[in-house]
Specification:
There is one protein chain. By secondary structure, this protein is mainly α. Helices cover 81% and strands 0% of the residues.
């Protein structure tokens, strides 16, 4: 496990940057385009971006979760303990926030595959929530090794 940790870390960070970068772009930049070019153009933009993101982000998130789990096992396990150190406590909070994002993505995949309507919160505010949680995950990731 120790030998693959650096590679898992690099893959995890690169995909996390891409994931949060897309969400940032959607919340800050793309949302500014809404209602600027008419409903038909807005719909085309949303469909185009949605189709592309549907192909990229579920596999990316899966790899982020898997690599995160691999890295987590270095710091939280039966011999190291689970909540004994500040690092472990912050890591558990970070994992909880990441699981909220993962559950939301799974919910969005479910509604897309079953063609059921999304809950209004998920439609309007989920990316904002992901951006805020992502910010705190990044801060916690850095604080873990300072505490």
């Amino acid at each position: 496990m120790e030998a693959i940790y650096p590679y898992a870390h690099i893959i995890h960070l690169v995909l996390a940057v891409i994931f949060i970068g897309y969400v940032f772009t959607d919340v800050v930049m793309i949302s500014a385009l809404k209602n600027k070019f008419g409903k038909e153009t807005d719909t085309k933009i949303a469909q185009t971006l949605g189709a592309k993101s549907f192909k990229i982000f579920p596999p990316a998130l899966l790899v982020i979760v898997l690599t995160g789990g691999m890295m987590m096992s270095k710091y939280i396990n039966s011999s190291a303990g689970f909540f004994e150190t500040p690092l472990q406590q912050l890591l558990v909070i970070k994992i909880t926030l990441a699981l909220i994002i993962a559950i939301g993505v799974l919910y969005n995949l479910y509604t897309k595959l079953t063609q059921k309507p999304k809950h209004p919160f998920m439609q309007e505010h989920f990316h904002k929530l992901v951006l805020v949680l992502g910010f705190f995950i990044i801060v916690l990731a850095k604080m873990m090794f300072v505490a």
